Amino acid sequence: MARLKRIWRNRVLYLMLLVPLTMLILFKYVPMYGVQIAFKNYQPSDTIRTAPWVGLKYVQTFFNSYNFWTIMLNTITIGLYSLSTFFCAPTLALCINYLTNRHFRKTIQTISYLPHFISTVVMCSIILQIFDARGGLFNVVMRLFGVQPKNYMGIPSAFKHIYIWTSIWQDVGYASIIYIASLASVSPELHEAAMIDGATLLGRIRHVDIPSILPTMSILLIMRCGQVLNVGYEKAYLLQNSMNIDASEVIATYVYKQGLTSGLPQYSYASAIGLFISLVNLVLLLSVNRISGRLSGSSLF
């Protein structure tokens, strides 16, 4: 009875929760019914229920494809490269936290946030303009140092660096918001005590600030590890060309092409690959979560 009374007392909050919960069920759980086409020979003329079962045929087809290792290596390399830049956001947050001029601080925050709100299509157009061989900003700057202009978007070895560092430029400011909020909750008394004990600025960062944001960093790092193979297809696809295809073809772009843009769309094949990657990401997430829980005591569950 006490629980029912508490629910009735907070009925407005539960009604507010009903909308996102309904959207979650409709757009995340209901579509899971269609996952079974990964194990069926589905054709547009069939229904999901009547399509014949083929088991793990399409997963095996992906494993035996001639470009399997190239696609996997590109995806893993970009995923791990992106993971290695995880500490850029907390570093930016620490730098912003110690800016004393309020107006300058707000300006830096605004400038760092803005790229996040630029659409992927527009951002890729900007990147292509910056690295244009005929008059792009990057080549203009490099020419000042005696480096001849190059078509960097056509160099396979340069693709991963361009992809990752432009992603940092776009998202690091927005990703730092949660760390700035965590730093704002640190008691000023801790800093005052550290300063009385003779701690320098670096000492305060090391012994006060970093421990305060460490649980947040652990949780976000666990979540990032669960998305190592989820390299977004939009940016990779838009920056792709015939010269860098060996370095830019990742699982997401391969699935998109096989499932939607090929002459004969292979819905079951694309679904099987997507399901396989989701299972690998799930295993990574559970493994890293368990390791983090044992080492630091911070985990998702």
CATH superfamily: MetI-like
Helix amount:
55-70%
Given the helix and strand composition, which structural class is it?
mainly alpha
Query: Given the C-alpha coordinates, what overall shape results?
Result: globular
Please give the number of β-strands. Answer: 0
Q: How many DSSP helices?
A: 16
Tell me the Rg in angstroms.
Answer: 24 Å
CATH-defined topology: MetI-like fold
Q: List low-confidence stretches.
A: none
Largest sheet: none
- CATH architecture name: Orthogonal Bundle
What gap, in angstroms, lies between the N and C termini? 29 Å
Count of the domains: 1
Question: Percent of residues in beta strands?
Answer: under 5%
Q: Indicate the mean pLDDT.
A: 87
Order of helices and strands: HHHHHHHHHHHHHHHH
The first-level CATH class is given as: Mainly Alpha
Brief write-up:
By secondary structure, this protein is an all-alpha fold.
What does this entry look like structurally?
- The radius of gyration is 24 Å and the shape is globular.
- The protein starts with a helix and ends in a 6-residue tail after the last helix.
- The protein has 301 residues and is an all-alpha fold.
- The chain has 16 helices and no strands.
- The chain has one domain: Orthogonal Bundle (MetI-like fold).
- Helix 5 crosses helix 10 and helix 15 packs antiparallel against helix 16.
Question: Which key phrases capture this entry?
Answer:
301 residues; mainly alpha; MetI-like fold; 68% helix
